[in-house]
Structures are given as structure tokens and as C-alpha cells.
Design brief:
The complex is a heterodimer of chains A (about 100) and B (about 270).
Chain A lengths: L3 H21 L15 H34 L4 H22 L5
Helix pairs in contact in A: 2-3
Chain B lengths: L32 E3 L2 E2 L4 E2 L2 E2 H22 L7 H21 L7 H17 L12 H23 L17 H46 L3 H6 L1 H37 L4
Antiparallel strand pairs in B: 1-4, 2-3
Helix pairs in contact in B: 1-2, 1-3, 2-3, 2-7, 3-7, 4-5, 4-7, 5-7
Chain lengths: ~100, ~270
């Protein structure tokens, strides 16, 4: 059973962690140092094409590696399936990396 | 970019059966031998094509612009000089922010790539010109230059330590093989996404422009006046798309150069 002391300690710990988190978050830059075309539409477009192509590219490369391994080892479709799925994971990972703020 | 095609050509993809100009949106990307050259016993084709000519034009334009900038004898820069300085400072800011000060030794590479792509994209706007970057072989070549530069520089600078790029720190040992495999796939997918993005944007944009421009031509070729009047609609659309394409042309050059910087940053600082 949690006692009063535990609650207090938990609260203090939470506050400390929240403050810590706040300090670690990257500060929002007041304005990007470059890109004159950096209206929101422009950066959204570049972000969109980046994220989309990186996802597809990873899936394609994963599938291709799998297919090549199968071709060499005559194990079709084992490697194709595994590497296709790995490609999907890598694609999602690419998108997360692209879209998450820098330093995160 | 060609808006229409002379009638009676044999390509039949988008042929219009009606009298009037035939529209073929793909025709603008066709390579043609301007100066046929073959070498060797196997007759390797190294002809000067329209693509090659436009690449030379791009290189010459860059050289001309930068030499006009570098003359620098004028206290107050003229238009050309400010354009050149703007381009320089733009790329410099990009390299410094993405790859740090040590990344500045790759400035020549990034600047060359950026100027090449941005001029290729912009030259493509002129009617009857040729958009070099709408050919995947060109963008793949550029992306592979970056890819191999990253690998060579990374290994030269850091030796085997470079491969820590694939081994993120703080991952439990039992899922490490999985993570490494994913990181390697992610790394290998870079040249693909890098090249396909630029190529696809330019190809799709120019086809769209051509299709809408073709609508105008087709409607104007019609006999009835009311049909001719409808041509205003695709014409307005073409103007809007042109503006969008101008944005895309610049943006894709920026994105390509920006990602080049980020990849080079990995070569310089593979630790994270």
C-alpha cells in the first residue's frame, strides 16, 4: 500500500523528471538560419517527399537484399520475406528519424 | 520543355486521333544523339546527346556566374555578383548547420551538386529545353557520388570505427543484430531515396505541366469557339502548376544538397 511518504517522494521525483525533460528538449530556434523558401508549405513539401521516398526506398532495398540472398542461397522465399519486413521496419525508422526534431 | 509534338510521329502513347497536334508528355524526356560517336571494336556509344549538351551548358553557366562573382572589384555588388554571393552563402549556411565547421571541406562538393541540380531544374522551365535531372541515371550518379564519398571518407577518417554508425549505443545485446540489420538497410536505402526523390519530382512535374499545356493546345485546335474558350481553364492551371514547379525545382535541389550534408556529417561524426 502506498503511504503518504511514497506519494510525496513520487511527486517530487515526477517534478524533477519533468524539469529535467524540459531542459533536455531542444530549444526551438526562432528562425531557421537558412532556406529562403522556408514557408510552411515549402518545408512541408520537402518533409513530405523526404519521408515518403525514404520509407519506400527502405522497403525496396530490404526486399531487394532478401531477393538477392534467396537467389544466391536458393531459399526463395525465406530471405525475401524476412528482409522485406526488415525493410518495412527500416522504412518506419527512417520516417521517424526524418520527422523527429533534431537532437532527439 | 516541349509542349507539343509534330503530328505524324510514330510514337503512339498519347496520340490524339483527331486532327490537330499530337501530345506526347513523355517525348520531352527523349534523348537524341546530336553528335554520334562510337569508339572501340564494339562500337561503344559515347555520342554527345542533348542531355550532355545541357549538362555542359549548366557547368558553363555555373562557371560564368561564379567568375562574375569572384571578379569582386566592385564595392557595391551588382545583380550577378549578389546572386553568386547569395548562392555561396546559402550553401555555406547549409553545410555549417548540417555538418559543422569541419564539414566545410566538403563545401566544393555540396556547392557543385547544388548548383548543378538547381540550374538543371530551372533550365528545364524553358520551352524546348531538356531537364537533365528528370533522368534517373543522372540523379543516381549524383547520389552514388555522395554515397561512396561518405563511405570512403568515413573509413579513411575513422577506420573501423566508422561502422559504429550501424551500432547505436545503448541497445540491449539481444536485439542488437536486428537493429544492426535495420540500420544497414536504412543506410543502403539512402542513395535510392536520394536519387528517386529528385528524379520523380522533376519527371512528374514536367509530365503534369505537359499534359495541362497539351489540353490548351488540343482545345485551341478544336473548331468550335466555345471549345476554344474552355482552353482558358487548363491555361490557368498551367500557370499555377508552373509556380508550383518553380518551388519544387528549388526545393528539391535544396533537399538533395541538405541530405548530402547530413550524410557527410555521418562520415565525419559516425559516433551517433
Amino acid at each position: 500500500m502506498p503511504t503518504n511518504d511514497d506519494d510525496e517522494a513520487l511527486k517530487a521525483r515526477r517534478d524533477r523528471l519533468a524539469a529535467d525533460l524540459k531542459g533536455r528538449q531542444p530549444k526551438k530556434q526562432p528562425s531557421a538560419p537558412l532556406s529562403p523558401g522556408d514557408k510552411s508549405a515549402a518545408s512541408a513539401w520537402s518533409m513530405g517527399t523526404k519521408a515518403g521516398s525514404e520509407f519506400v526506398a527502405a522497403v525496396v532495398v530490404g526486399g531487394a537484399i532478401g531477393y538477392a540472398l534467396d537467389y544466391v542461397a536458393h531459399t526463395r522465399p525465406a530471405f525475401t520475406i524476412v528482409f522485406f519486413l526488415l525493410g518495412v521496419v527500416a522504412g518506419v525508422w527512417n520516417v521517424i528519424r526524418t520527422t523527429s526534431p533534431k537532437g532527439g | 520543355m516541349r509542349r507539343c509534338n509534330t503530328p505524324g510521329e510514330k510514337r503512339g502513347l498519347w496520340r490524339v486521333a483527331e486532327p490537330g497536334p499530337a501530345i506526347n508528355p513523355i517525348e520531352q524526356f527523349e534523348l537524341s544523339r546530336v553528335l554520334p560517336i562510337t569508339i572501340g571494336a564494339h562500337h561503344y556509344d559515347i555520342s554527345i546527346t542533348n542531355s550532355a549538351i545541357f549538362m555542359v551548358v549548366i557547368a558553363a553557366l555555373t562557371l560564368w556566374l561564379m567568375s562574375m562573382t569572384a571578379r569582386g572589384s566592385v564595392g557595391v555588388p551588382g545583380r550577378l555578383q549578389s546572386l553568386g554571393e547569395m548562392a555561396y552563402e546559402f550553401v555555406e549556411g547549409m553545410v555549417r548547420s548540417a555538418a559543422g565547421d569541419s564539414g566545410m571541406r566538403f563545401f566544393p562538393l555540396v556547392f557543385t551538386i547544388f548548383m548543378f541540380i538547381v540550374l538543371a531544374n530551372l533550365i528545364g522551365f524553358f520551352p524546348y529545353s531538356f531537364t537533365v535531372t528528370s533522368h534517373i541515371i543522372i540523379t543516381v550518379a549524383l547520389a552514388l557520388i555522395v554515397f561512396f564519398t561518405v563511405i570512403v571518407v568515413g573509413i579513411k577518417e575513422h577506420g573501423l570505427h566508422f561502422f559504429k554508425l550501424f551500432v547505436p549505443s545503448g541497445v540491449p545485446i539481444y536485439i542488437l543484430p536486428l537493429v544492426v540489420a535495420i540500420e544497414i538497410i536504412s543506410f543502403l536505402s539512402r542513395p535510392l531515396s536520394h536519387s528517386v526523390r529528385l528524379f520523380a519530382n522533376m519527371l512528374a512535374g514536367h509530365i503534369t505541366l505537359n499534359v495541362f499545356g497539351g489540353f490548351v493546345v488540343m482545345l485551341l485546335a478544336a473548331a468550335a469557339t466555345t471549345t476554344k474558350l474552355i482552353a482558358i481553364l487548363p491555361f490557368i492551371m498551367t500557370i499555377g502548376l508552373d509556380a508550383l514547379e518553380l518551388l519544387v525545382a528549388f526545393l528539391q535541389a535544396y533537399v538533395f544538397a541538405m541530405l548530402t550534408c547530413m550524410y557527410l556529417n555521418d562520415a565525419l561524426h559516425p559516433g551517433h
